[in-house]
Amino acid sequence: MSLREPKSMDECIYFTNRNVGKGKIKAWAFKENCPECGKGLMGKPRDEKTGKPKIRADIYVCPECNHTVDKQKYEDSLDINIKYTCPKCENNDEVKTSFKRKKLQRIDEETGKKETIDTIRFECSKCGEKMDVTKKMK
């Protein structure tokens, strides 16, 4: 299976490229066509003055027919493509999974307190090591 990589960031809802220990993770989710008209790619609404997407918007809009979809509902329907090098066994592979984020608890190294994080979890195809693509923490 060979995953199609994005040619530009305009094709993507989400993109990240990270180092995890000795391993690497590159993950991206492509924009989907509008469910109403099927022509335009769904994206965040754009600012009228600057033309840039409103990054904190909680809806996605079709530029062709102005059909709107709730952010959570739209993102949960997408698939995420992941190319990785496992930090444990150094296996290179690709995986395609649901873009639905799950909540996990972990202990913050600085404060020692438990915190809940949103993550996409997948396993190495060779050794079964669990790897996470987490939201960037503040």
Structure description:
- This protein has one helix at 71-76, and strands at residues 12-20, 23-30, 59-61, 68-70, 79-85, 92-98, 102-107, 114-123, 130-134.
- It is mainly beta.
- It has a domain at 9-98.
- The chain has a four-stranded antiparallel beta sheet with strand order 1-2-5-6, with no helix packed on it. It has a three-stranded antiparallel beta sheet with strand order 7-8-9, with no helix packed on it.
- Strand 5 and strand 6 (92-98) form a beta hairpin.
- The radius of gyration is 17 Å and the shape is globular.
- The mean pLDDT is 87.
Could you outline the blueprint of secondary structure elements for this entry?
Blueprint: E1 12-20, E2 23-30, E3 59-61, E4 68-70, H1 71-76, E5 79-85, E6 92-98, E7 102-107, E8 114-123, E9 130-134
Antiparallel strand pairs: 1-2, 2-5, 3-4, 5-6, 7-8, 8-9
Keyphrases for this structure?
globular; 138 residues; 3-stranded antiparallel beta sheet
**Order of the strands making up the biggest sheet:** 1-2-5-6
SS class: mainly beta
In percent, how helical is the residue content?
Answer: under 10%
The radius of gyration over CA amounts to 17 Å
Q: State the low-pLDDT regions, or none.
A: none
Distance between the termini: 35 Å
